[in-house]
Amino acid sequence: MKKKLLVLQTDFGLVDGAVAAMHGVAYMVAQDLTINNLTHDIPPYDINAASYRLWQTINYWPTGTVFVSVVDPGVGSSRQSIAVKTKSGHYVVTPDNGTLTHVKKFIGIESTRIIDEATNRLPHSEESHTFHGRDVYVYNGAMIANDSNYFDSLAVGDDVNEVIKLEVLDPVFDGEVIHGVIDILDIRFGSLWTNIPSSLLKEADINTGDTILVTIHHHDMKQYQNQMLFGHSFADVKIGETVGYVNSLIRLGIAINQQSFSDTYKIGTGNEWKISIKKV
């Protein structure tokens, strides 16, 4: 029998009862659900990080899995609540606030449904307007996970092109230098994950064992510049040395072996953090 899989992501943390309440609501819908946590440590209000982590994860779950993502600084406002089916056969329930940006760009959305926050919600929760993670999103996610026909019963949404998206920049190779951005961090270890795919490294004739010049700007100010090995993994250099590598999403990563690159050099993430790569 196929498992009913529900995966939760929020910026709530685990310091209080919010996540446990969401689990409880899901089990009230169907006690045979299998509930898993993607993460509850998205930085508060960071919609871009929520979008990226969904894309990072979705394709490694069986088709039919339902993801609930709640990073919702506009909770209680006029922003829409939606459920989507992706072209990979997964479902996502989330505010329509940009959380689906990376899924839309790199996986694709097949269809959308509108969640009516007045009626498609946990019974007797109508007076609560600030915990839609519990009252709206996980409730509807659990309903879909329990029976995918529930998705079809929701009101048909706008054209998938109308789903709100954040700005995602594409890397550029000018014939000599690759220009990209630092998308996100490998949080626990402080490595930089860029938007530069391995295919662009190959186009620039950057191969394992080459030396690359890495330059990082924040807005127009240079924050870092140095040469490093482009290797297979961290162990290709001594502890404390820098290395470029292809990460688990098949994109360029920048790291210090057994140290945090982001902490050491005070590097952040987002479109204002530009990175350029050149073969030496």
Automatic annotation (TrEMBL):
<dbReference type="Pfam" id="PF20257">
    <property type="entry name" value="SAM_HAT_C"/>
</dbReference>
<dbReference type="InterPro" id="IPR002747">
    <property type="entry name" value="SAM_OH_AdoTrfase"/>
</dbReference>
<dbReference type="InterPro" id="IPR046469">
    <property type="entry name" value="SAM_HAT_N"/>
</dbReference>
<keyword id="KW-0804">Transcription</keyword>
<feature type="domain" description="S-adenosyl-l-methionine hydroxide adenosyltransferase N-terminal">
    <location>
        <begin position="6"/>
        <end position="148"/>
    </location>
</feature>
<dbReference type="InterPro" id="IPR023227">
    <property type="entry name" value="SAM_OH_AdoTrfase_C_sf"/>
</dbReference>
<keyword id="KW-0240">DNA-directed RNA polymerase</keyword>
<comment type="similarity">
    <text>Belongs to the SAM hydrolase / SAM-dependent halogenase family.</text>
</comment>
<dbReference type="GO" id="GO:0000428">
    <property type="term" value="C:DNA-directed RNA polymerase complex"/>
</dbReference>
<dbReference type="InterPro" id="IPR046470">
    <property type="entry name" value="SAM_HAT_C"/>
</dbReference>
<dbReference type="InterPro" id="IPR023228">
    <property type="entry name" value="SAM_OH_AdoTrfase_N_sf"/>
</dbReference>
<protein>
    <submittedName>
        <fullName>DNA-directed RNA polymerase subunit delta</fullName>
    </submittedName>
</protein>
<dbReference type="Pfam" id="PF01887">
    <property type="entry name" value="SAM_HAT_N"/>
</dbReference>
<feature type="domain" description="S-adenosyl-l-methionine hydroxide adenosyltransferase C-terminal">
    <location>
        <begin position="181"/>
        <end position="274"/>
    </location>
</feature>
<keyword id="KW-0949">S-adenosyl-L-methionine</keyword>
